[in-house]
Specification:
single chain; about 400 residues; mainly alpha; globular
Amino acid sequence: MIGPVSSLRGMTHHADSPPADAPSPARERREPPTGAPGVGRLVGLDLARGLAVFGMYAVHVGPAPSQDGVIGFLMELVQGRSSALFAVLAGFAVALITGRRTPKTGMAGRQAVAKVVIRAVILLALGTALTMTGTPVVPILAFYGLFFLLVLPLYRLGAKPLALIAAGWALVGPQLLYLLKPVVGGRVFLSYGQADGPVSLFFTGGYPALTWVPFVIAGMAVARCDLTATAVRIRLALIGVALAVTGYGGSWLAVRLVPGAAEAVRKAEEGSGMSSVSSVSPDSIGIFGDTPAGMLASAPHSEATLSIVGNTGVAILVITACLAAMDAFPRLRRLATPVIAVGSMSLTAYVYHIVAIWLLDTEALTVSPLYVLLGFIASVTVLATLWSRFFQRGPLEWLMGRATGIARRIQ
């Protein structure tokens, strides 16, 4: 998520540039094989990150998804899916740091592990600080820090083992959360708010690790693939379609076939389909503690297996579509430059909108939510585009890169 957008072609990856969700750009040193699609860096990842940023903005300050028309449909579309896309891209960050196609070993491997740990600690601290501002938003960064630490032991695995682990975790994690959340949900342990504290990070927060880590592992699995090969991208797109159909289609069938499921899903949608996921308390996010039938829901933040499967499929589709589009349509790449600029500094863009929500007190604004959303998107796009013309990395991405430089001292 970094790098001057004005010179996207042929750029290589700086050894210390912080990737995606840590967040930062996805540059790579290797050149694609002759005739294969792709450029020196996977520009499409920055486009996907930019879209994820805009999706998060829409969730936090945009109109209610319950309203009629195209706007309501679009707001509903980003609910839960933009944050899932962010989480899948977090898996890319881990893979890019530790060696995307071939995991690093020896001293390079130890240094890569140290970089991931440093990033995780910074994200935990930054996420906690943002939570303490008291905004209605549940910042995702502290959760990301924990995700990085939890998936780090898997960094040497290939695409297939990672995919299997992601699938297994998606099947088991929601069921464990259903059993454990009533036990730990009433306990308060070092919690400053909805988005931090060990219990919140693992179980009761807006993005509980027990059900969100599969997104990150799935991202690592995708990153291990040869994304410059057209055949691989086609297979990934088909997998994305299959997962989306299984998740959303399976939920649609289950709701109509399983007694009590329809009512549970309706309650889950009422709890998570608000104008802002950030306004949902940890107790109302998901359907756990209500009825087992509700675990068949694919509603945003239902934390159910089918929801995880469907959202993962959508994330994979978005990523593969962005990668293919950036390679196939150079003119589109130029038109998408502002969005790519935002994606290249997504950590900065994310923190920017949380701080802006805090300073502006958006809940008290009388301006139409649509205008507020457009103002947020326009301002961050202009700032990111201008910044990228003069600097290689976003301000927070640069600081992250400097902090991880400590890892070079490890022998």
